[in-house]
Amino acid sequence: MDILGSGHEQVVFCSDPGSGLRAVIAIHSTALGPALGGTRFYPYATEDDAVADALRLSRAMSYKNSLAGLDLGGGKAVIIGDPRTDKTEALLRAYGRFVEALGGRYLTACDVGTYNADLDVVARETRFAHGRSLAYGGCGDSSVLTAYGVFQGMRAAAEHRWGTPSLAGRTVAVAGVGKVGSELVDLLAADGAELVVTDVDPAAVDRVRARHPQVRVAADTAELVGMPHDVYAPCALGGALDAATVATLPARIVCGGANNQLVTPRIADDLLARGILYAPDYLVNAGGVIQVEDERHGFSFERARERAAGIFDVAQRVFRTADADGVSPAVAADRLAEERIRSVGRLATIRLPR
């Protein structure tokens, strides 16, 4: 794996045999500010898989934070292991010491397999843990505003595609109804959408149907994407969109909360060729990072929610730019994010005389 050719500023391997910690922290860019990104706790098959995921996710965080207008760079950490059996206080505190050793270049938060209570433990060893529980003055569960941002992106896509910023009467297929997906279902149901869902965890589906008995359930993702629907919302792990899926996908819009939805960048062109409007994942799922960033200033949910609502306007700008330039929304979003990193990031090199 060519880590040195990946464009990352720093990749840190963390090992603490006493606690069993094995982790990778990837800092993609600090051009706009300290690198903010969550900590993923996942049983990777190999260390190479863990490194590859950290590199992909940290790069996406640079673009996400830039497009969201935040003065933050991009980073990500992955802890190798099963969070159900391997997560301990000793391991989390050991991880916190590695974060602290980076001196603020990396700010960590929650991701798959980690929760507010875990960040409270990490914060006992570092000043740079965010997304903490409300009891400790944190912002609480960031999935709330992550889902809200996805919903705003979906509304913008609906207006661009159908001329109205509403999902009322549209069928939305939600793959993954965990923390973010279930919140998204609540918002879509309130907007009048018809819903079909699936999840590898039957209990997650049961919780959604307890609130919304009208929701239909698909046995798995393969069945879900084959059912008639207007919007496909991948809200589980990445890699939801490959060539085979896109070739038969009935949706006219793809907009979901999962990171790294495209198996390869070329998939964005495949979606464009089929007339499917793709809302770039790192654009629409930025509500969570907006919520976490607000914690650094004394958390206000209403202030963070108002900022997350701006995802609607940014998404519209991306769609218009894509149309004007004749490119996919993924390319348009990348260009806008890169331009801000270049133009604003250069200010970091400007210093007033002391």
Kindly, what is the distance between the CA atoms of the first and last residues, rounded to a whole number of angstroms?
43 Å
Q: What is the radius of gyration computed over CA atoms, rounded to a whole number of angstroms?
A: 20 Å
Q: Identify the CATH homologous superfamily of the largest domain.
A: NAD(P)-binding Rossmann-like Domain
Specify the helix fraction band: 40-55%
Give, in order, the helices and strands.
EEEHEHHEHHEHEHEHEHEHEHHHHH
Query: Count of helical segments?
Result: 15
Proper CATH architecture of the largest domain: 3-Layer(aba) Sandwich
Largest sheet: 6 strands, parallel
- The CATH topology of the largest domain turns out to be Rossmann fold
CATH class of the largest domain: Alpha Beta
Structural class: alpha/beta
- Low-pLDDT parts are none
Mean pLDDT over the residues: 94
Strand content: 15-25%
Question: How many strands in all?
Answer: 11
| Biggest sheet, spatial arrangement of strands | 8-7-6-9-10-11
Q: Give the number of domains.
A: 2
**Inertia-based shape:** globular
Active site: 76
Pfam families: ELFV_dehydrog, ELFV_dehydrog_N
Binding site for NAD(+): 176-181
InterPro entries: Aminoacid_DH-like_N_sf (IPR046346), Glu/Leu/Phe/Val/Trp_DH (IPR006095), Glu/Leu/Phe/Val/Trp_DH_C (IPR006096), Glu/Leu/Phe/Val/Trp_DH_dimer (IPR006097), Glu/Leu/Phe/Val_DH_AS (IPR033524), Glu/Phe/Leu/Val/Trp_DH_bac/arc (IPR016211), NAD(P)-bd_dom_sf (IPR036291)
